[in-house]
Each structure stands twice: as structure tokens, then as C-alpha cells.
Amino acid sequence: MTLSSRRSSTSSRATRIVGGFTLLGVVALLVLGLVVSPPDPIQGETVRLIYVHPASATMCYVGFGICALASIAYLWPRTRNMRWDRLAGASAEVGVAFCVACLVSGSIWGRYSWGVWWTWDARLTLTALLLVVFLGYLALRRTGGDPAGRAKRAAITALCCFIVVPIDHEATNWWVTLHQKDTLFRIGKAPLIQGWQLGTMLLSFVVFALLFTWMLLHRLSVEHMEARLEDEGYVWAVAERRAEGSAGDEAVLPAGGPRPGPVVTAVPAAGPPPLGTGTMSRTRREEGR
Amino acid sequence: MSNPVTGGWDYVAGGYGATAVLLGGYVLSVLRRGRVLRRRLPAGSPASPVLAEVRPVATAEEGR
After folding, report:
1. Do B30 and A222 touch (CB under 8 A)?
2. What b/e readout covers A80-103, taking b as 16+ CB neighbours within 10 angstroms?
3. Distance between CA A69 and CA A92 in Å, rounded?
4. Which of A111, A141, A218, B23, CA to CA, is 20 to 30 A from A225?
5. How do residues A128-166 score in pLDDT, each as one tens digit?
6. How far apart are CA A89 and CA A137, in angstroms?
7. Distance from A249 to chain B by nearest Cα, in Å?
8. Does the CB of B31 have a partner CB in chain A at under 8 Å?
């Protein structure tokens, strides 16, 4: 087994560096959050959830924000490129993961603070709506058809979905809600927490940002591999059709790989994998990715 | 409400544990998808195990 095969298939130098810092940050956050940071006079030990829940919510917003920006870049004719579409899809998916983590950790905290796991509070409802609309966005990305058209539809949908983000963020200011208002960033006012609690909460944002970056890099790598497989799968599918058409004709090329020309290609010994159609791949190439 | 015995630590454990399980599970699924895709990738990928099994094939016209 080679070194490269032992490593994760989506790993790179960047993921290893970011992953190392993330690991160190998580350890530091656990020590500070669970040991060093003092309990709250009112909330007791459960205040320690403040080092997980707000950072998850922020990364959820960041994920959907990157998705919206990448969608704008895709829709803009001068910057149109399938790489933006892939970045949008990857960041939305990571954002959804953080959104679920935010809802679950918030629900547990709410059970302690409010006595219920869930209530139809404006902030909670809008966050749940945010999750649902971006799940719909991810489902839309999985629809078949022309990749360019699908990417355009997805980009427009992402921008529509993103409208919920600022409304969700401002929900505690616009409506009377059970959910508390901002703890850190209060205009013209000092943060509601100080000392170790403040420092640990700020660290939680840094650590979760590193974690988000690490997850996004891996997810983006998967997107690139899927796209490449779709492209090269077209060549494999053509080879398979031609091999079927020329059954009985044995043709072997000289060593050194396939020769140039439209009729020469390569297939694996075990046969081509089940892949998409060629139309999608051609369109993707024409897109100039 | 808080259990007087646990002092709220049960909620803390639940929140941290649920976050770790959710995000960790997602990361593992992404890494697994990456490994599966890498195995399916055709020639041109240095880390692809399929690369060694690739053999050239020509069409009937080319063979003649």
C-alpha cells in the first residue's frame, strides 16, 4: 500500500495543514470550554453550550453566504465557470451540516432554558426554514439534464434561498422572541460576557471556521472528482458502445497508451462503471470549466 | 430543567456529543465518497487503483 492510498482520497497539502490546526483548536476549545471557563450564575454549566451553538449557526450562515456569492459569480457572464457552481454546491452542503448541528444543539439548550425541545419562535422557525430551503436547493442540484442549465437554475435558486439568511439573523431584533438577542456584536454596547467566557467564545468561532474550511476543501475535492468522472465516463461509455458494435473484431493497440483520433479510447479490464450520458459531459466541456 | 445531580452537565454532554456525531458523521461520509470516487476514476489519476487495469481498445475500423 502506497502512502497516497493510505491517505484520504480527498486530502491535499491544504487539507492536512488546515486539519492539523483544526485538531489543535478543537482540543484547546474543549479544554477551555469544559474545564477553564467558569459556569454562569443563572444558566449554570449549560452556558458551555455557547461555545458550540452560536459558532455552528455562524458557519451555517457562512456556508450559505459562500453559496450565494459563488452563484452570483456563476451567473455573471464574465466569470461564468462550472467551478463556481461546484463551490456553491459544496459550501451549501457543508452549511446544511452546520445548520443541523445548530438546530440540534439549540434544541438541547432550549430544553434546559425554556423547558421545551422546540417552540415556533421566529428565530427557530426561520432557521428550520433555512434548512428546508437549502435541502431543496441540494435536491435541485441532483436533478439530471444539461449541466449548464442545471447550474443556472441552481444559482438562481440559491440566491432566492439566501434571502432567508438576513431575515433569520435579524429575527431576534425584528420580533419578540424567546431566543436571546446577540451576545457579542451589539451596536454601541459591550458584549454580555467577559473574561474566559468571552475568550472561549471567540476561540470557538475561529475553530469552527477552521473546521468549516477543512470540510469545504474535502467536499470540493469530491465535487471535482464527480465532475471529472462524469466527463471521462462519456469516453468510457462511447468505448463500450463501440466495443459492443465491433464484437468479434479483436483490435489491440501498441503499448504506450491510446493513439490520437476519434475512434481510439481506453476502457478498464473490468468494464466501464455505470456512469451518466455523454450529452452532459459534452456540455460541461463546452462550458469551459 | 436541570437535574440537581448532574448540574446541567447532561445537557452539555448532549449538545457537544450531538454536534460531534453530526459533523463527524458528515465528514466520514464525505471522505468515504471521496474514496469510492477515487477508485472509479479512470486513467490519468495517479492515485487511482483502476489505472493499473486499464487496457487500450480500438474499434473495428482501427483494428483492420
Report:
1. yes
2. bbbbbbbbbbbbbbbbbbbbbbbb
3. 11
4. B23
5. 999 999 999 999 999 878 889 999 999 999 999 999 999
6. 9
7. 6
8. yes
CB nearest B56 (choices: A9, A98, A258): A258
If one counts every other C-beta atom within 10 angstroms of the C-beta of residue A147, the result is 24
In chain A, what is the straight-line distance between the N-terminal and C-terminal CA atoms, in Å? 33
The verdict on pTM exceeding 0.80 is no
| Residue among A249, A248, A282, A242 at smallest CA distance from A264 | A242
Q: Name every residue whose Cβ is closer than 8 Å to that of residue A140 and which is 6 or more positions away in sequence.
A: A150, A153, A154, A157
> A9–B58: do the CB atoms touch at under 8 Å?
no
- Please give the Cα distance from B42 to A116 (Å, whole number): 52
How does A207-233 read in b/e, with b if 16+ C-beta sit within 10 Å? bbbbbbbbbbbbbbbbbebbbbbbbbb
Select from A244, A264, A236, A234 the least CA-distant residue to B61.
A264
Mean pLDDT of the B20-47 span: 83
Task: Pick the residue of A12, A108, A232, A234 with the most B CBs within 10 A to test the interface with B by mutation.
Answer: A108
- The two counts, helices (H) then strands (E), for chain A are 9, 1
